[in-house]
Amino acid sequence: MNMKLPAILLAASIAGFGIGHAQGDSLSISQRFHHETSYGDEGSKAETPHWGKEVPLYKSYEGAKKIKLEPLAGTGVTLEKALDERKSTRSFAEKHVSLDLVARVLLAADGITHSSRGYQMRTAPSGGALYPIDIYIAAADVESLEDGLYHFHVADSSLDLVKEGDFSSQLHKASNGQAAVGFSPLTVILAARWDRSTVKYSDRGYRYCYIEAGCISQNISLQCAALGLGTVVVGAFNDDRLNEFLGVDPKQEAAILMMPIGWPSQ
Question: Is the pTM higher than 0.70?
Fold first, then answer.
């Protein structure tokens, strides 16, 4: 059920949560987003909820060169040790990473683990098992992998080549010149296909996309720690440049975060 509130009651209800009071009845876009995607006793508080459309579970690039990922056995590192070792790395050695390590990182990030009630479940939780997050990698110095932008095809644990080239400089500019980006052999980019979640959850699905991206990024961070690799989560970037790099329409799919990965410099 959709609950509609007059403007004065809307402002009052939000002020009751400690926001909006300092600015009178005005709300920032973030405050309004949080309210409009909230639930109350009568259901959604959104005045005009937007519902997404059906899109395929697995995004694919027809005719793209495909690289199968076949990782070796695990490291045997305990979760407790990986948690203890996890830290942000912003400087990387000029040393390549192997395709095996890339495979381990991606399968830990959001790989399929088992089937349940007709769903293919993954390493990261997802609202309604809809899995709106897609993973891209920009390879600049990966052994046995030509430089380029790839899409992680979860269904068969493979990489689809989107476009060839070393895009390190382009990524560095897209990150607003951050020192951590553009100088690693590998960069992971997480993007959300909004409709995959909003088709079921309306605008609240945006929240679930962000939550899922956070879970995936932590999986990546812990696997990197277990493998001795370094990474950092980068959320500050030029959205227009990064979405253009991925070749996506931000109204349908948009970059959420990026993670440079490599061997920490000593």
Answer: yes
